[in-house]
Amino acid sequence: MASSFENYQRRKLISSYVSVVISIALVLFLLGCLGVLLINSKRMADHFKENVAISIFLQDDTKSIEVEELKNSLAMADYTKKAVYVSKEDAAAEMEAETGESFTDFLGYNPLKNSIDVYLNADFVNNSAITEIVNTLSQKEFIEDITYDEVLVDLMNDNVRKISFWVLVASIVFTVIAMLLINSSIRLAVYSKRFIIKTMQMVGATKSFIRRPFIWRSVQLGILGSLFALAGIAVVLYYLNNSFPELNMLRNPVLLGGLFIVIFGVGIIITWVSTFIATQRFLNLRTDQLYY
Questions:
Q1: 191-223 pLDDT, tens per residue?
Q2: Residues 6+ apart with CB under 8 A from 200
Q3: Structural domain that includes position 251
Q4: Is 84 helix (H, G, I), strand (E, B) or coil?
Q5: Which of 124, 148, 172 represents a domain boundary (last residue)?
Q6: Is the distance from CB of 196 to CB of 238 less than 8 angstroms?
Q7: With contact defined as beta carbons under 8 Å apart, do 267 and 222 qualify?
Q8: Cα separation of 208 and 214, whole Å?
Q9: What is the pTM of this model?
């Protein structure tokens, strides 16, 4: 009978430890994923911004040397990520491929213009900077027109600001929630041993002596939960980096390493603090209060 009861207690204890580890791992995993999003949010925003192009349309009588000089000057400009020359023939072929109809055969000529598509560096994708660029380029006589999607630029910058703000807010809120959830799991684990704590205290054990094994056990569980969380985050990072190589999410290993250290540290610190507070609470209770 005693052996059966001991086995039951052991299974119950193991189940409690497993639930604490799983709780810590899940919470830290979600917190880490949010951290990865926060670290890469600017890079993702820059990726979309750098797909916005300014189209510079050239006059038909523009000399090839003028086109080459313009391309070279644009390629060396601080605001340029890349500059792509698109001939009127290539533009017509691309449009015909998209529409499935040959408008040049219908019209009898090609109405399109030779152009240069300038893709800007992300820091210059705002209407004030683009307007200044357009005004400077417009002074060249062989440039017939310069166009870009002004509404898209405004909308993109506005959405980036909103998303960055809410990601920051979500990170703060989720950090608080993570602390509360881990604290709750640890308190429940300590609560199940409240009678053992009080018994040790009644036979003369000091508070620090009683707290020490509980804190060490919780820290071990915190370390284990953190390692599981970090393994999950590493898998997610590997998958995202392979699925979206253009974002290059492993580009900044220092920040990612810092995030891993923070997640690992959070798992240890929260479990240590939570266990200290929980054990201290039960140490300060009277024996009759343990039943409530």
A1: 667 777 777 777 777 777 878 888 888 888 889
A2: 209, 210
A3: 14-47+156-291
A4: strand
A5: 148
A6: no
A7: yes
A8: 10
A9: 0.64
